[in-house]
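Dear colleagues,

For the upcoming journal club I promised to circulate an example of a predicted protein-ligand complex. I picked one with zinc ion because it came up in last month's discussion. The inputs are reproduced below in full, followed by the predicted structure.
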Amino acid sequence: MSRRGSFRCQICGRKKHLRKNGTVVHHHVGGPQCPGAGYPPIEHDDARLVGYAGEIGAAYERAAAAVKRLEEDRANWIDPVLVARRRLLAAEVVKISRRVQRHLDWPERYRRSMALQMEKFGYVWSDPPPLYLVERAGEAKGAGEPLNAL
Ligand SMILES: [Zn+2]
């Protein structure tokens, strides 16, 4: 098992210490508290990442619908805060969906980089993906290609 302080937050991906109950400590990223604080690290679980991606997507849809409704009603004034919120949420949707994609790709990328690093250097320094993700990736692929190398 990894030593203390080498677990990654599900949302921001920064290495953080864990509390005694196995959740990531309180931390801030660029201002507000990181939404991954108080949840297990990505090595143990990814439910928070998936849930947060859904929450952000829904919040963006709501903000976009509110602005669109005002535009269609030809409102005299649209609160710039609402427009800014829509833009910020759109950026967050892109960021978090890339993060989810990168998380899901992890076993595949690890296998590729392991093959490359073993060939070039004879050893591997990448962090291996968490077991639950490897098992899930194996299920998704079916019995065709076992992940023996991991
Ligand atoms: Zn975080």
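Two points we might discuss: The pocket of zinc ion is lined by residues 9, 11-12, 14, 27, 29, 34, 36 (CB under 6 Å). The helical segments are 47-72, 80-120, 131-141.

See you all on Thursday,
B. R.
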